[in-house]
Every structure is written in C-alpha cells, then in structure tokens.
Design brief:
There is one protein chain. The strands form 2 sheets. The protein has a 3-stranded parallel beta sheet, with helices on one face. It has a two-stranded parallel sheet with strand order 4-5. It folds into 3 domains: 122 residues, Rossmann fold (3-Layer(aba) Sandwich), CATH 3.40.50.300; 57 residues, no CATH class; 122 residues, Up-down Bundle (Zinc Finger, Delta Prime, domain 3), CATH 1.20.272.10. It is 60% helix and 6% strand. It is mainly alpha-helical. Helix 6 crosses helix 7 and helix 11 runs antiparallel to helix 14.
Length: 324
C-alpha cells in the first residue's frame, strides 16, 4: 500500500494538483456508490480558479473487481446499471475535462482485465500502473536504494537485522526510515538498528519456531521473552507456534511422499522459497514428530481453556520437554 500511496502522491505532483483539489469516492460498495456523481465531479470547475488542476480518485471500484463464480446470472437491474455505467464512462472519455485527472485506485485487488470497463478505459488515453509484491531480492535493492538516497551507511549485521525486522514490508521500512532520520546518525551498527527498529510478530514467531525445531532452547526462550516484551501473551504464542508447526508438518508430509519442492509449493499454494526454507529448518525431524508437537499443543490449549493448566507453566513445560 505504501508504494501505491507514494506513487499516487508523485502523480498528483506531476500534474501540479494540490491536495485541496482532490476528491475521493469510495466505490467498493455497488449499492452506495454513484458512478454518475463521480463523473459529475470530473466536469465541475473551481469557483475560485477555473484553470486549477484537480483529481477525482475512485477507490476500490467494485466494477473492476473479478466476480465470484456463483453460477447466478446478473439481474436485469444490474445489467442496466452496467450498461449505463459503460455509456457514461465512454461519453466522458470521449470528451474529458482537460483540467481533471481521473484515477481508478485498486488497493486490495488487481483490476480484472476481462471487465468491459477495463477494456473501455484502455481504449482511450489511460495510464495503467501495476504494483506486484516485491521479491526478497527486489525488496533488498529497494531498501539499499532508499538508504543510499538518504545517505545512510549500515554495517553488514545492521543491514541484515533491518531487513529481518521490516520483513519485506515497504510501510514498515519507511516507518523505520522515519525513526532513523530522528536518530540523527549517518552510520549505524547492529546495536543502533536493534534500538531504533521494533521487532515484528512475524520475525518473533519465525525465530521462535526455527529455534524450537532446531532444539535450541536458549534461543527459543530468548524469542519468547522478546514476544512477551512486545505484549504477546502465552495463549497467542501457543496458537502462533502451532500454526508454524502445522505448515512445517504439511510440507514435511508431502516431502516424505516423494513430492519435489515445486510440487509441494503448488499443492499448498505456497512460495517455492518458503517451502525450501521450511524443509531446511526441519530436515532432521520426521512428520510424525511434528504431528506429536501439534497434538501436545492442542492438548495444552484445551487444558488452558478448561482452567486446568496455567498458560505460562504449561507452555514452558512444553518447550523444556521438546525444545532441547
């Protein structure tokens, strides 16, 4: 989302559009959004400055979202609304307001290129900007470029720690960059990054689960302590560890059946690299061992819910028994 917002701000600047001249419509709900109102806003002129550039942003346009396959045909009313929307859109595209930038902003989904509205838009003078989730190496380059742009130098250990803490998330990285700006140093080491950039839940549970399956008890307990400092309780940690172990169990079970990494990734709808890393972390364990861990965690969770087991003692006993 951060890169989308950043690019939108750049486009508005490119067209010299002040934020006071930006009108936004929420088009996520077909029942409440009125397309003609948005087009009407495109055609209006400022009372104070008729030549002022403005933008009309239609966010989450429901008509560009891929339709769920329900087997139900569109009602006559829906067909009429679609036809009217297409006619209105084409009429505007044929004679657009030269002072208006019309933006269709899809944040939570990718626009369906099969939609008639999409095809109509691309027939005219339309710029399509797509944002794909960056691959790990692309994100690393993005981070390196931004750090260089801001004239920051990090030690190798500091860079690795920063990348782990922001976990391929541009918003987390830019929040970290703001904190680095406030920190006031141009050259940062590992201690600086650990002090400035907060840990995130994904990294904490990743470290805890990796340490646990590696039977590294001290690292497991250190990760638990970090999660407690981040205000995660024992019940949440039990659920998060169970989720990670369940993923490893599914990967390991398919691997034991003779499936390749890519076949496992396809079967589980997972990333090839995630499968590879998962197998590396539990190479020394059989799937039946991972299943036993899951069964013990399920029993522990039931005991906590029933009030028979105190969460802290129960979880620590589980770790002491299986994590060393």
């Amino acid at each position: 989302m951060f890169r989308q917002e950043e690019r939108l701000a750049t486009i508005l600047k490119e067209f010299s559009i002040d934020k006071d001249y930006v009108t936004t419509f929420d088009a996520s709900n077909a029942k409440t959004f009125r397309f003609d109102e948005a087009l009407m806003a495109c055609d209006t002129f400022s009372l104070f400055d008729g030549a002022a550039k403005k933008a009309v942003i239609i966010k989450e346009p429901h008509f560009l979202r891929a339709s769920a396959k329900t087997g139900k045909k569109e009602t006559d009313k829906q067909e009429q609304e679609k036809d009217q929307r297409l006619k209105s859109l084409e009429a505007y595209l044929k004679n657009p307001n030269p002072n208006t930038l019309l933006v269709f902003y899809c944040h939570t989904f990718s626009a369906d290129t099969r939609k008639k509205e999409y095809k109509l838009l691309t027939t005219y003078d339309t710029r399509v900007i797509k944002f794909e989730l960056m691959k790990p190496w692309e994100f690393e380059k993005y981070v390196d470029d931004k750090l260089k742009e801001h004239k920051y130098k990090l030690t190798r250990e500091a860079r690795i720690e920063l990348l782990e803490r922001v976990s391929n998330d541009t918003l987390k990285f830019h929040n970290a960059l703001v904190k680095i700006d406030l920190y006031g140093k141009r050259e940062l080491n590992l201690e600086d990054v650990m002090h400035i950039v907060p840990m995130n839940a994904d990294l904490n549970i990743f470290r805890m689960s990796n340490a646990f399956v590696a039977h590294d008890l001290s690292s497991t307990l250190l990760a638990v302590d970090e999660m407690l400092q981040a205000r995660y309780d024992y019940v949440a940690m039990i659920a998060m560890l169970a989720s990670k172990l369940r993923s490893l169990y599914n990967i390991k079970k398919l691997y034991e059946r003779g499936l390749s990494d890519s076949m496992i990734a396809t079967r589980l709808h997972a990333d090839d690299l995630a499968v590879k890393k998962g197998l590396e972390s539990c190479y020394h364990l059989q799937s039946k061992t991972l299943l036993r861990y899951l069964e013990e965690l399920a029993t522990l969770e039931q005991g906590i819910k029933a009030g028979r087991i105190e969460p802290k003692n129960g979880f620590e006993q589980f770790l002491l028994k299986n994590g060393s």
